[in-house]
Amino acid sequence: xxxxxxxxxxxxxxxxDDDGEEYPSLEAARDAAIAALPDIGREKPPRDGKRSFxxxxxxxxxxxxxxxxxxLDAECLSEPQEVEG
Length: 85
Prior knowledge:
Residues 1-20 are annotated as: Disordered. InterPro entries: DUF6894 (IPR054189). It comes from Methylobacterium isbiliense. Residues 3-70 form the DUF6894 domain. It contains 1 helix and 5 strands. 18% of the residues lie in helices and 38% in strands. It has one domain. Strands 1, 2, 3, 4 and 5 form a 5-stranded antiparallel sheet that branches. It is α+β, with helices and mostly antiparallel strands.
């Protein structure tokens, strides 16, 4: 089974996967990265309500094969507005 590494970035913070894991395919490794990002996004957001999370799926040679991004952008208005729908 192929061995992949999933590294994460959250602004100035990064977490490099030194061990990796076996996945049946690149798509399965990509799906694992997608599944992990929402969990990382549950941490307390910065005051401006904006965060960008990135996961990189690498092969054993360090080649980035997939990039997965999750962006958070929260705004509050000073005046309440009706939501049309």
